[in-house]
Amino acid sequence: MRVLVINGPNLDRLGMRQPEIYGTGTLDDLNTELSQLAVGLGVELDTIQTSDESEIVVAIHETGADGLVINPGALSHTSRAIADALRSVDTPAVEVHISNVKDREPWRAHSVTGEACVLTIYGRGRVGYAEALRHLVNRSAMPFETRRYGPHVCNVGDLRTGEEGLIVLIHGGVWRHQYGRDTMETLAVDLTRRGYHTWNITYRVFGTDGGWPGSGHDVLTALEAAPHLGLGPVGGVVGHSAGGYLTLWAVGRTKDIVRSAVVLAPVVDLDDAVAEGGTLAPEARLLLAAGAPPRVAARDERTFVVHGRADQIVPVRHTQGLEAERLETDEGHFELLDPSRPHWSWVVERLACSFEST
Ligand code: DQA
């Protein structure tokens, strides 16, 4: 697979340009990191940067690549020419913004070019480029169909069909709108390669009419809808981080529907998150004020927990008191989303057992 990464105006100034917003790494650093990742993913990668709109249009026309990762910089907010160029080719494009364009000046919130892309990743820093590349790889590896479970634009999930057994995936992101279901895709693709049907859902979060009770309501609705996909009962649910909190909360209410739950670095204790004052604190405070349960518990013996001691986002003590079979690893928070890490075979075994005993 060949992917072209296009960076637009002013992105050659990364490292010097407003480092408090865009970070201190340069464009060369970014391209080196991406090239290394590309080798591991079996992707042939080309990168260009130009501040000239017409050069971007021509690069899109002439790409010949199987996928595009594009950060058009400020042209994102105005360039109908780039948007039309993206629409004029069959190549799927993922737009990336390093900064959180939805939480800055109002004119940055809308992207004209993003409308012509299959996915927009924003506000995740430079890691967004790597996640865009992974999305393109997952997309080309396995087709999916997006199926709706409710009326809101966020009430959808990507269905990948395997042979038998349905697993629902619930992403995290601390209820922040810049994180979505693409973060669970590599796990979904791995599980479908192993023969399971997977439904990788998203839900309302802060900034998309959610938080609490919105997120909880949506996850519950999705789990209730899952058996009606025509793929049999829900054998397992896999949730990560905030999605782990939602999983623990929702599977306790869907005992007749969900056979087993695996939670990866789940947020368990909102009071603790507020007291600690770390990354989770602002959303945890809002959730508590909106009536979310301060603690969630493991449902029964069919709940499995994985947590990494190097987790800087959800402290490992969150899950140490959970009464569930538990694996503690040396990983950090996001490594648990990587199926090539050692914990994943443990997870897969637990999921397989829960199907056997269905
Ligand atoms: C940007 C966001 C744009 O609004 C801005 O004009 C840029 C960079 C980003 O990566 O966050 O140049 O695309």
Describe this structure in words.
With 358 residues, the protein is an alpha/beta fold. The chain folds into two domains: 2-138, Rossmann fold, CATH 3.40.50; 143-356, Rossmann fold. It is built from twelve helices and 13 strands. It has an eight-stranded mixed sheet, with helices on both faces. Strands 2-1-3-4-5 form a five-stranded parallel sheet, with helices on both faces. The longest helix is centred in the first third of the chain and has 15 residues, at 27-41. 47% of the residues are buried. It binds 1,3,4-trihydroxy-5-OXO-cyclohexanecarboxylic acid. 1,3,4-trihydroxy-5-OXO-cyclohexanecarboxylic acid is lined by residues 10, 71, 73-74, 76, 97-99, 101, 108.
Layout of helices and strands:
Blueprint: E1 2-7, H1 19-22, H2 27-41, E2 44-49, H3 53-62, E3 67-71, H4 80-87, E4 93-97, E5 119-122, H5 127-141, E6 145-148, E7 156-160, E8 166-170, H6 185-193, E9 197-201, H7 214-225, E10 234-240, H8 242-251, E11 258-264, H9 270-276, H10 281-289, E12 303-308, H11 317-320, E13 325-329, H12 343-356
Parallel strand pairs: 1-2, 1-3, 3-4, 4-5, 8-9, 8-10, 10-11, 11-12, 12-13
Antiparallel strand pairs: 6-7, 7-9
Bound molecules: 1,3,4-trihydroxy-5-OXO-cyclohexanecarboxylic acid.
